[in-house]
Amino acid sequence: WDYQDIPVDTDQGLRSEMMQKSGRHTVPQIWIGDQHIGGCDELFRLEVGNQLNAMVMGENQ
């Protein structure tokens, strides 16, 4: 899987953009494509619920 890590801790502009897009101020904030997943807990829930692979493969968008 290809992913991009965007370090918002060192760039206030990027952090503000993340907060505006996600409505959250904590990190990590995870997106799959243009879909906001949430944080680590939400990502793990998708994995446990066998939904993560389909989302990553674009089957659930």
Short overview:
This protein is 41% helix and 11% strand. The protein has 61 residues and is of the alpha+beta class.
General description of the model:
By secondary structure, the protein is α+β, with helices and mostly antiparallel strands. Helix content is 41%, strand content 11%. It has a two-stranded antiparallel ribbon. The radius of gyration is 12 Å and the shape is elongated. The mean pLDDT is 92.
**Strand segment tally:** 2
Into which percent range does the helicity of residues fall? 40-55%
Helix/strand class: alpha+beta
**CATH architecture label name:** 3-Layer(aba) Sandwich
Q: Biggest sheet: strands side by side, in what order?
A: 1-2
Biggest sheet layout: 2 strands, antiparallel
The H-level CATH homologous superfamily, spelled out, is Glutaredoxin
Sum up the overall morphology in one term: elongated
Report Rg. Answer: 12 Å
Strand coverage percent: 5-15%
Helix count?
Answer: 3
**CATH topology, which one?**
Glutaredoxin
Total individual domains: 1
Which labels suit this protein?
two-stranded antiparallel ribbon, 3 helices, 61 residues, alpha+beta, Glutaredoxin
Explain the layout of strands and helices.
Blueprint: H1 12-22, E1 30-32, E2 35-38, H2 40-48, H3 52-56
Antiparallel strand pairs: 1-2
